[in-house]
Amino acid sequence: MDPDEVVALTPAEQSDVVGRGVVADVERLRGVLEDVLVRLTDADVAAPSRLPGWTRGHVLAHLAGVGSSAARQLEHARARRLVDFYDGGRPGRDAAIEAGAGAPAEVHARDALAAALRVESALAALGPEDWDAPTRYRDQPATAVAHAWWRELGIHLVDLDLGVGQDVWSPALLDHLVEFLAPRVPAGVLVALVPGGGASRWELGDGGLVRVHAERAEDLVAWLAGREPSGPVTAERDGEPVSLPELGPWP
User: Which residue ranges traverse the bilayer (predicted)?
Assistant: First the structure.
């Protein structure tokens, strides 16, 4: 075969290529999580996180729970079986977080890391034909489950407020978060996200143009995700300062 010949990928192969890129970034983020967990103390666990009303223990219990649930979805998807994401639905998920939040640091570290590694094992087992297998995560395929864990791990690493900042979000994760969070933009507004005073990097919605400025792209995505940016985020319409658009609920 001519080495310069372009080989067309099947849809399954294309999904596999995209999925493997997500897996690589998930593994990188898990390494960051490990660095956090080896230093975790009981005092850290009991202290507030960046999420209102949640301690770091709540965030860690949620990470362990959502990781285990994501892994289960992927394991069953590979076998072409459908199972609920959380046992007991959203109430079961909330009860598990409350029950686990006060555990000692050693338990949180063990459970969060075990869940993260279980997800990676489940992802590694997926073949090209498995990425589009159905799941009960929002009735979407296994690819969506991988993306969900990618988001959860990246965002909650920052929410823990244990020395990990938004710069841990890779360019690929930033792009994915913006795409996922685009439905938060209110109707009738076209939001241009403009980092560093240059050209807009992302445009979301449809309607009257509002430019949202920040020095760093990560701050723009943090604002879109309902998190506290590390620097100022401002908005302008037709060159005049305006209030930031009021964002809708998490998709």
Answer: none
Residue 149 φ then ψ, to 5°: -65, -40
Tens-place pLDDT, residues 87-112? 999 999 999 999 999 999 999 999 99
Distances (CA, A) of 145 to 14, 95, 134: 17, 22, 10
- The pTM for the full model equals 0.92
| 96-to-3, 64, 99, 104, 157 alpha-carbon distances in Å | 54, 10, 5, 15, 19
pLDDT tens, position by position, 169-213: 999 999 999 999 999 999 999 999 999 988 899 999 999 999 999
CB atoms within 10 A of CB 159: 21
Q: How far apart are the first and last CA of the chain?
A: 46
| Six token digits for residue 156 | 């909650």
Enumerate domains of the chain plus CATH numbers: 11-164 (1.20.120.450), 175-242 (no CATH)
The pair of three-digit structure tokens given for residue 32, joined into one six-digit string? 């960051």
Which runs of E-coded beta strand occur in the chain? 188-195, 202-205, 207-214, 233-237, 240-242
Mean pLDDT of 109-126: 98
Structure token pair of residue 137: 């995560």
Q: With 90 as the cut, is the pLDDT of residue 7 above it?
A: no
Asked if residue 64 lies in contact with residue 111, where contact means CB atoms within 8 angstroms, the answer is yes
- State CA 23 to chain mean position distance: 13
Give the C-alpha separation, 111 to 136, whole Å.
23
User: Is residue 226 left, alpha or beta, with left meaning phi > 0 and alpha meaning psi from -120 to 50?
Assistant: left
